[in-house]
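Aim 2 progress update. The chain analyzed this quarter is reproduced below.
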Amino acid sequence: MKSLKWRMVTIYVLLVLIVMIACGTMIVMRISNNAYKEIETGLKKSISTSMEAIGENSTKEEAIRKWEDAIGGYRDSERKLYLLDTDGKVIFADKQGNKDAYLTPMVMAAIQDTSIQKFDKVYGRNKDDKKEYIGYASPIKVENEVVAVIYILAPSEQVKINLYSTVRIILLAILFAIVLSIVFGFMFSNFLTKPIIALSNKARDMSEGDLDNPIEVLSTDEIGELTKNFNIMATELNHNLTEISSEKNKLETVFAHMTDGILVFDTNGLLIHSNPATRKLIGLADKNSFIEIFGQYLDTTYERLLMNIKGGIRQHIIRIKEKYVNLCFAPYLDQNKNIMGSICVIQDITKHKKLEEMQKEFVANVSHELRTPLTTIKSYAETLLNGAVDDRQIALDFLNVINYESDRMTALVQDLLELSRLDNKQTKFSMQCINLSHIVESSISKFQIHAKKKQQEMVYNKTDNDYKIIGDANRIEQVIKNIISNAVKYSNEGDSITINVYEESSYVVVMIEDTGMGIPNEDLTRIFDRFYRVDKARSRAMGGTGLGLAIAKEIMDCHGGHINVTSEVGVGTCFYLYFPYEA
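Predicted structure tokens:
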């Protein structure tokens, strides 16, 4: 790259050189013109003076003789004086030399009695005399007729010598001026380029991210003003970049910690950005385009999608393995409102979908649970209305069935209301210090008679410790009774039920184990769902609503505890009730 400094110095030197050459040329020409003009003037004056001596009314011989006498006072060692006839031949010469005729333009003009402006330039005709001479001729006229020509030669060699000396002086002056111009050019260019170099270095530092060190302002001229504005620009740029970096970090932090996935595609459908949540939701692997990621789930092309999202956001719900995700596509635009690509927000709606399914299932279960007793009550009531009421025994049997189904509906509605209150945190608990061991013993005693009816053995391994916890005695008793009741109901005759109370870590555990029919593994995760029954026919036959375990779980959660269950089909089931405990 060519240096600005050298270009400025070169221009400066060339400018000085051109000026010096122009001035030197004018000086040489003026000196040359003046020197030649002085010689020509001297020649004219000499001839004019000699012509005055001839006078008027002289014959040819008298005129020549008078001129020869008169020139004695004008002779010198340098000039040459000749008297020529009308043929240009030398009649008289003041110095010895070549007598050849002179037929120069000036002589010919004098012979013809005319005048020209340009003087003759001739060289000496002797071997020893090669000097340049300036010649001037003037006619001698008698009775207006040219009878002879006076021709004077004055040497001009000294003029050339003086001109050569002047040229040498001018050349030396030009050389000196060039040296000075180089020195001053460098000084001047340094003055101009130093702040420019500083600006260039600062721009390079800015490109590398260094925006904190301002440039020193060295002058108050335009370059100084440029430096000030450059410093202001760097400060503003630093401020803007800091804000942009801060916003970028905020966005990256938000994207990195969002639970929703983010995908950004360019106009060609190539993936240019994604966040960690996306990889967890859909697993990108080595997929880098819209078609690779969504081609198997969406029946559309990327070009068609871009056309569709011009009018606003477009949503698609897809299923990926066991997950349901909601895809929200929206365009992102440039400053001219042109679509530069699309942004896809991926929301995991699996829980929402499952909740919807549970709500539908809940509504269906409630409808089914209410429809069965209502159908029974309606059919029996219609039978009674159609005449069966007259038969007392049949009427009593039908009324007992109606009463039983009414009790089932009442129990179902009460359980539903209780669950609703628990869900809405409307249930008030009477929290106080209670003896858990006494509650367990009381619950066992209430179901001993039911166990004996089925010839079941109910064993309580009593300990010497009285475990006291904080809780609502009635609600805790409700949970324990529900678990013991299920153990009695779903165990066969002759099975055994074992209850233990013990301390584990920071909990008191009530373990209720039976040797009943057991629960399949696929049902273990759903036994706390509302209306879920492992054996629906047997559960309804025993008067169960399918809400007992759901209520028990809610009560345990409200007490800061939890329920665990293990089971094996044909071996039995074991429930563990964990109550927070501080010894």
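The two ends are 87 Å apart (CA to CA). The chain has a mean pLDDT of 81. These observations will guide the mutagenesis experiments scheduled for the next reporting period.
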